[in-house]
Specification:
The strands form ten sheets. Strands 7, 8, 9, 10, 11, 12 and 13 form a seven-stranded mixed sheet that branches. Strands 6-5-14-16 form a four-stranded antiparallel sheet. It has a four-stranded mixed sheet with strand order 29-28-31-30. Helix 1 packs across helix 21, helix 18 crosses helix 22 and helix 22 runs parallel beside helix 23. Helices cover 45% and strands 18% of the residues. The model has no long low-confidence stretch (mean pLDDT 91). It is an alpha/beta fold. The protein has six domains: 206 residues, Rossmann fold; 105 residues, no CATH class; 155 residues, Isoleucyl-tRNA Synthetase, domain 2; 140 residues, Isoleucyl-tRNA Synthetase, Domain 1 (Orthogonal Bundle), CATH 1.10.730.10; 88 residues, hypothetical protein PF0899 fold; 74 residues, Helix Hairpins, CATH 1.10.287. It starts with 8 loop residues before the first helix and ends with a helix.
């Protein structure tokens, strides 16, 4: 067989993926097997995937391939998310470059452009996942705007509205001025910001006195409707029931009391702007205050802003400060650290704005969702996220589910009048008209007098239903697939969407199916760049995954990511982790080439060293399988891979293959040894396959002819067996001797070809030296000689292993003495060099001017250098004495 010298990842990956797809190995249908289902967190169709998606999907594929080989009926459902805000922003930007706007072209044409965008990016995303090796059931591909999923979303909205969970009301909401839509609390990122606190003077009505109010946002004075202080704050008792005049606006507002006010913040007086702060709105409702909205949708001031009308909020802030200074109503300005909210999608500064929106009541549905995690019915990996989950769930607020966008699931609500409740909830216009005629008692109501809500639902309102909707379990809750596949096994996701998605899915599962949606949640760490920023599409700070795959190979990327990923822990991505993966691929390929290069001879005697190696590796494999599975089943996927990595690199390649390898250029090997080696390699490939599917499948298909044509992907996982621990301990001791001999060779510049003699001291209780044949071969020893006492008149190197003493000597005594002389000269020169270095360091350290002028960190480094140099000199002198003694 002609095997390429170098592993060609590109051709292998393309060939093997095509082979799996052709054989339909990824597909799943309900049968008698136990199901194992994963729903992929659907990537947003806003562009190509980034390295975080690669990690997330590699983990899912590792779990799926492992379960498939374990005999489960694996079903991994791929999909993409329509991502309302981000996708609409992308298409709006694209149109803008062509001189178009969504308002100009209208809703229908705009949605046509978005659909074109979505088709293009869905295909790009799926191509990337295939290149990575993801073994998804592509027959079950989902899109959150597909017909089935859209029908599910509409049905859930209608059902929850009928049950009283969904309602419409005025609330102060988070407003994204760039996207011009509301956001849920979870879509707002809060960052520390160094701003300013402005102390403004409000004149008391009928007096010459002022009340001073501290604010970070002087531009909002146009929306002020009261000044408030704490009822127990005696400093302001004299202001009770009085009025104050707003600067510039010259409108009088009442001075009220409320226990919400913190007497220790600012002056202890708070200006109340109900339309632009949810806490101010609560106070306004309690005290029946006016509500004045001062902002347009794009965060410019409306006509309530007087001469600042049409001006951006931040520009107004600069200019209004100058005006207030001229009016002499600014008492003081000081720096102030506070948190500012930013839109997760557009990164614009959020405004709080009073708006009529649709909301979903969350408190009641959160109770069974909390209980399921509390009692262990749903497991979190790592467990630390349970605490965060419980904290959020215990403080849960109603979910603002409406968005002022065109792309998304349109709210199934139809209006027919001007009153707040002049609407009906229906799945289409015809049914809405029928309902509206009945509700309004106007049987002549026409199509022209009824209109659908222009808003769409929050993107997450479709995602929270996925474990149910992908199996059509909402429209048909008792279908065969729901009974078979639900609940799913795992959700693999970043901890950053614990509240956006995971918590909400748990709630929807219990609310709609009265059952948990999945059994376990595996939280990946967040991948960060060298600046410690989270890698994301919005920051555009991820290397192109396809470029990485082309350069290093998919297996190398997968292995590099998995080795550095630990559940729930962030890590920094560097290209060198891909290089580590590629080097490992080459190591495995070279091992395969070595085995294939041997010529097999039947009935040939098996060398003693090879028999011992076979016995050892068999036991070692089952030991590794045991600890590998123990780590894997605890979701310590990085640990299980590292166990396997070391087993392949060191045990299999560095020891086993070296032991059985024919010597002196000979290529002939016993059939018994060869067949055992192939069997071992096949088992190794099985363990490797979930992590590195391409190279493992390629070698599996090349290493021997298979009558059944069984692919590795559907082969059986190795079964655990008992292993002899004593054999492993004895072999480890043998490898320690080999390592000591090799270290002495390296330290003393003795070539590996040079034969040495090893003496070992026999104690009263004579130990069986079972592995001497292996030590002789791998350490290249001429012989191993037992002695009762230290050899006399023989120059040697001595070393201990535990309590056993060994002596290593040249066969040629003259050569040994010559080498010792050379070593003595080298060491004496090294000691002289270090003494000179020590003098230079001490010259500085004993100079008071130097010591007082340099930084503490530099002084610490110099003192450490002095200490390290002294230690080196001491060790070298001890070794020099030893060499002179044995000459």
């Amino acid at each position: 067989m002609d095997i390429p010298i170098k592993y060609d990842s590109k051709s292998v990956e393309k060939k093997r993926y095509h082979y799996w797809m052709k054989k339909n190995y990824f597909s799943s249908y309900p049968d008698e097997r136990i199901p194992y289902t994963i729903v992929m967190p659907p990537p947003n169709i806003t562009g190509i995937l980034h390295i975080g998606h690669m990690l997330n999907n590699t983990i899912q594929d590792v779990l799926i391939r492992y379960a498939r080989m374990k005999g489960y009926n694996t079903c991994w459902i791929p999909g993409t998310d329509h991502a309302s805000i981000a996708t609409e922003a992308k298409v709006v930007h694209q149109l803008k470059k062509r001189g178009l706007s969504k308002i100009l072209i209208g809703r229908e044409k705009f949605l046509y452009h978005v659909l074109e965008w979505s088709k293009k990016h869905k295909n790009m995303i799926f191509d990337q996942l295939k290149k990575l090796g993801c073994s998804c059931d592509w027959n079950r591909t989902q899109f959150t705007m597909s017909k089935q999923l859209s029908q599910s979303v509409t049905k859930v909205f209608m059902d929850l509205y009928e049950k009283g969970y969904i309602y419409r009301d005025y609330h102060v909401v988070n407003w994204d001025p760039d996207a011009r839509t509301t956001l849920s609390d979870e879509e707002v990122l809060y960052k520390e910001h160094v701003g300013k606190l402005y102390y403004l003077k409000y004149k008391i009505k009928g007096e010459n006195n002022y009340v001073i109010v501290a604010t970070t946002r002087p531009e909002t004075i146009f929306g002020d409707t009261a000044i408030c202080f704490h009822p127990e704050d005696s400093r302001y008792y004299h202001l009770k029931d009085k009025y104050a005049k707003i600067p510039i606006v010259n409108r009088y507002i009442p001075i009220i009391q409320d226990s919400y006010v913190d007497p220790n913040f600012g002056t202890g007086c708070l200006k109340i702007t109900p339309a632009h702060d949810r806490y101010d709105k609560n106070i306004a409702d309690k005290h029946k205050l006016d509500i004045i909205d001062i902002f347009n949708e794009n965060a410019t001031l409306n006509d309530k802003g007087l001469h600042y009308k049409g001006m951006d909020r931040f520009k107004v802030r600069k200019e209004i400060i100058e005006e207030l200074k001229k009016l002499e109503v600014i008492k003081n300005i000081e720096k102030f650290n506070h948190k500012v909210g930013f839109s997760e999608r557009t990164l614009s500064v959020i405004e709080q704005r009073l708006s009529i929106q649709w909301f979903l009541k969350m408190k009641k549905m959160s109770i069974p969702a909390m209980e399921a995690v509390k009692n262990g019915d749903i497991q979190f990996y790592p467990k630390k996220f349970k605490k965060i989950y419980f904290k959020w769930m215990s403080q849960i607020r109603d979910w603002n589910i409406s968005r002022q966008l065109w792309w998304g699931h349109r709210i199934p609500v139809y209006y027919y009048g001007k009153k707040l409740d002049d609407f009906v909830v229906a799945e289409n216009l015809e049914k809405a008209l029928e309902k509206a005629r009945h509700k309004s008692k106007n049987r002549y109501l026409s199509h022209n007098e009824i209109w659908q809500d222009p808003d769409v639902l929050d993107t997450w309102f479709s995602s929270w239903l996925l474990p149910l909707s992908v199996f059509d379990g909402i429209s048909h809750p008792y279908n065969h697939e729901i009974f078979y596949y639900y609940p799913t096994e795992e959700i693999v996701t970043g901890s950053d969407i614990l509240f956006f998605w995971v918590a909400r899915m748990i709630m929807s599962g219990f609310l709609l199916q009265n059952h948990k949606p999945f059994k376990r949640v595996y939280f990946t760490g967040i991948i960060r760049d060298y600046k410690n920023n989270k890698i994301s599409k919005s920051l555009n700070n991820s290397p192109n995954p396809i470029d990485l795959i082309n350069q290093y190979g998919a297996d190398a990327i997968r292995m590099g990511l998995m080795l550095h990923n630990s559940a729930g822990k962030d890590f920094h991505f560097e290209k060198k982790i891909c290089l580590q993966g590629r080097n490992f691929s080459n190591k495995i390929w070279n091992a395969f080439r070595l085995i294939q290069s041997w010529e097999v001879i039947k009935n040939q005697d098996v060398p003693d060293s090879s028999s011992l190696a076979i016995q050892w590796l068999k036991n070692r494999f089952y030991y590794i399988l045991d600890i590998f599975e123990n780590s894997f089943q605890k979701y310590k996927l990085d640990e299980s891979l590292m166990i396997l990595y070391k087993f392949i690199w060191y045990d299999f390649c560095s020891y086993y293959l070296e032991i059985i390898k024919p010597i002196c250029g000979n290529k002939f090997i016993s059939e018994t040894v060869y067949l055992n080696t192939v069997k071992f390699f096949e088992n190794i490939l099985k363990l490797l396959h979930p992590y590195m599917p391409f190279i493992s499948e390629e070698i599996w298909n090349l290493i021997k002819k298979r009558e059944t044509k069984e692919a590795l992907i559907i082969s059986s996982w190795p079964k655990k067996k008992l292993y002899d621990h004593d054999i492993l301990v004895s072999f480890r001791q043998a490898t320690e001797i080999i390592s000591k001999v090799r270290n002495i060779r390296n330290r003393n510049h003795i070539s590996h070809q040079e034969s040495l003699i090893l003496f070992y001291m026999i104690k009263k209780e004579k130990k069986e030296r079972k592995y001497d044949s292996i030590i002789l071969k791998l350490a290249n020893l001429d012989k191993i000689i037992p002695v009762l006492k230290e050899p006399k008149n023989v120059p040697f190197f001595s070393f201990f292993l535990n309590t056993d003493q060994f002596f290593l000597s040249y066969k040629d005594e003259k050569k040994c003495n010559l080498n010792h002389h050379i070593d003595i000269v080298k060491i004496e020169n090294k000691i002289q060099y270090l003494n000179n270095l020590l003098s230079i360091v001490r010259k500085n350290l004993y100079n008071n001017k130097y010591v007082t002028s340099v930084s503490k960190s530099l002084l610490f480094k110099e003192r450490k250098k002095e200490n390290d140099t002294l230690n080196k000199i001491t060790r070298l002198k001890e070794y020099l004495e030893y060499l002179k003694k044995i000459r």
